[in-house]
C-alpha cells in the first residue's frame, strides 16, 4: 500500500494521477465490499488481488472467509489448504478456519482434528476460545467414533465428487466415484453420478446401459430420465431423447436440487424457454453454490434472446465460481 501511496504522491506533483492497480488496492476494495456484505463484489475484488499477488496468504485467507460466509465451504477449504502448503503452516489461523468449515459441512472428525491442531500451535491465539467452544460442541462419544468416521468419509467423498462434477471435471470425478462404490456399496444414489461421469469420459455405451438398468429397477427415477435425455441428446438420437424428456416435463419436484436438475436438463437439450421458467422458479439462495445454475441459466437466457440478463448472471456466476470464466465456449452452445 505504501508503494501505491508514493506513486500517487509523485503523480500529484506532476499534475497527473494515473490509476495503478495493485494487490493492496484490490484487497482493500474487497474488504470494504465484504464489510458491506456485498459478497459477490468482494469475491471479484479479492480474485483480482490474488491474480496480482498469487502467493499473498492474507488475500487468500480473506477470500476463504467470504466463501465461508456464502456457504461455499469446499472453495474456502481449498484456499486455506493452499495457504498452509505454500507458507509451511505459518498462517496458523487457517487451522481454525478449516475446523469451522468442516463443522458446517457436518464433518466432525475433521473439524475436531483442525481445532486441536490450531490449539496445539496457538493455545492463546485469536481464535482459541472459539476453537475450544467448537470442541465442546463436537464432544464426540468415543463409542461412536468408528461409525462417525465412516460417515465423515462418505461426506468428504460426496462433497469432493459434487465439486468436480459441477465443474465438469470428469477425469477427477470418475476415479473418486469408483472408490465410493467400492467403499460404500450401499450408497446407491452415486450410481447416477457414475453414469454421467462415464458418459462424459468417453464410455457412452456403458453409461447408457447402467442408467437403463437403474431405470428398470426404479421406473419413476427423475435422475435416470434426466441423465438419459442428456445422453441421447449428446448422441443426437432425438426420438430417444424426447421419450425421456416427456417424463420430466410435467414433473414439478419440491426439492430445489431436483428442480435444478430438470431446469439444467431442459437447457442442455435445447428447451431454453421452458428451462428459463424452471430456473426462475428456483430459490437462488439454495442453488447459488451450484456452478451448473449459473452455467446453464445464463446459456438459456442468451439463447432465448435475453442478452443483458444472461451477461449479468454469467458475471455474477464467475465472481462466485471463478472456474466458470474458462468456459466461454458454452455461449456458443
From TrEMBL:
Family annotation (InterPro entries): O-mannosyl-transferase_TMTC, TPR-like_helical_dom_sf, TPR_rpt
Presence of the UniProt keyword Protein biosynthesis in the record: no
Keywords associated with the record: Repeat, TPR repeat
Record-linked Pfam families: TPR_16
Entry annotated with the keyword Oxidoreductase: no
PROSITE patterns in UniProt: TPR
PANTHER family: PROTEIN O-MANNOSYL-TRANSFERASE TMTC4 (PTHR44227:SF3), PTHR44227
Official protein name in the record: Tetratricopeptide repeat protein
Natural source organism: Lentibacillus populi
Native organism taxonomy: Bacteria, Bacillati, Bacillota, Bacilli, Bacillales
Amino acid at each position: 500500500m505504501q508503494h501505491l501511496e508514493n506513486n500517487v504522491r509523485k503523480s500529484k506533483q506532476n499534475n497527473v494521477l494515473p490509476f495503478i492497480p495493485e494487490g493492496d488496492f484490490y484487497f482493500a476494495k474487497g474488504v470494504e465490499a465484504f464489510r458491506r456484505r456485498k459478497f459477490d463484489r468482494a469475491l471479484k475484488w479479492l480474485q483480482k488481488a490474488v491474480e496480482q499477488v498469487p502467493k499473498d496468504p492474507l488475500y487468500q485467507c480473506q477470500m476463504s472467509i467470504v466463501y465461508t460466509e456464502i456457504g461455499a465451504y469446499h472453495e474456502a477449504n481449498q484456499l486455506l489448504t493452499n495457504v498452509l502448503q505454500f507458507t509451511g503452516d505459518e498462517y496458523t489461523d487457517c487451522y481454525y478456519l478449516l475446523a469451522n468449515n468442516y463443522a458446517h459441512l457436518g464433518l466432525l472428525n475433521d473439524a475436531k482434528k483442525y481445532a486441536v491442531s490450531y490449539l496445539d500451535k496457538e493455545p492463546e491465539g485469536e481464535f482459541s476460545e472459539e476453537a475450544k467452544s467448537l470442541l465442546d460442541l463436537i464432544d464426540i462419544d468415543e463409542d461412536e467414533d468408528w461409525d462417525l468416521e465412516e460417515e465423515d468419509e462418505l461426506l468428504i467423498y460426496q462433497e469432493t465428487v459434487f465439486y468436480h462434477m459441477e465443474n465438469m471435471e470428469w477425469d477427477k470425478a470418475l476415479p473418486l466415484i469408483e472408490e465410493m462404490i467400492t467403499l460404500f456399496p450401499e450408497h446407491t444414489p452415486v450410481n447416477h453420478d457414475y453414469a454421467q461421469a462415464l458418459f462424459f469420459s468417453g464410455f457412452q455405451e456403458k453409461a447408457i446401459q447402467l442408467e437403463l438398468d437403474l431405470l428398470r429397477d426404479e421406473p419413476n427415477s427423475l435422475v435416470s430420465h434426466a441423465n438419459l435425455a442428456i445422453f441421447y441428446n449428446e448422441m443426437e438420437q432425438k426420438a430417444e431423447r424426447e421419450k425421456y424428456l416427456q417424463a420430466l416435463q410435467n414433473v414439478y419436484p419440491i426439492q430445489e436440487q431436483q428442480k435444478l436438475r430438470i431446469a439444467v436438463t431442459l437447457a442442455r437439450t435445447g428447451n431454453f424457454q421452458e428451462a428459463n421458467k424452471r430456473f426462475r422458479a428456483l430459490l437462488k439462495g439454495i442453488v447459488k453454490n451450484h456452478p451448473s445454475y449459473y452455467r446453464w441459466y445464463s446459456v438459456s437466457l442468451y439463447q432465448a434472446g435475453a442478452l443483458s440478463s444472461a451477461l449479468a448472471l454469467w458475471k455474477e456466476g464467475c465472481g462466485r465460481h471463478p472456474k466458470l470464466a474458462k468456459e466461454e465456449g458454452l455461449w456458443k452452445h
